[in-house]
Amino acid sequence: MPEIRSIRIVTRPRRPPRFPTDLSTREFYGYDEFAEALGRHSRFDVRVIEDELRTVEDDAFVLLQSDVRDEELAECQSAVRRTILVNSAGPPACVERLDQLGIAGAIPRGRYFQWRSRPQREGGGGLFGLRSVADRMGATSFLGSMSARYRDIYSERCRDLPELVAAYIETFAEMWPDLEMKP
Length: 183
Fold this sequence. Notes:
36% helix
């Protein structure tokens, strides 16, 4: 497996608007702003792409809109292990889906919107990820044990959600491809 060299935020391709006020998924969720914030905290090239998961480069870590179909995930197993779902359900449904899919992590919808709407009240939490990566980061947990593989991640060193996600991806990349994803 190739070394991780980039971060891609993958969202659905833009559809023709039905109304003049229609926004693309990319615009609605502010993925360009999130990519810019991630880029400030990461050594990786960060881009938003409006396409399908299967088009992502083999050396990319993926942040994927959570409404992806299971069939799409099944056909892209090489990318799934290095994927964080964005705008997922909150706990415990989020952790159940992580266990089911065996992916790198998830950002719950409520936490993502908190970052977008109140950046001045930010803190270094809100990501669910692999325990092994969180331990290597020296991160703590607010919610305690929710799964054998996954937990919520909080780091006092991170000032906001993009910085936490960037730190998680950096640590994940250091551990990749030897990272044990299954229990």
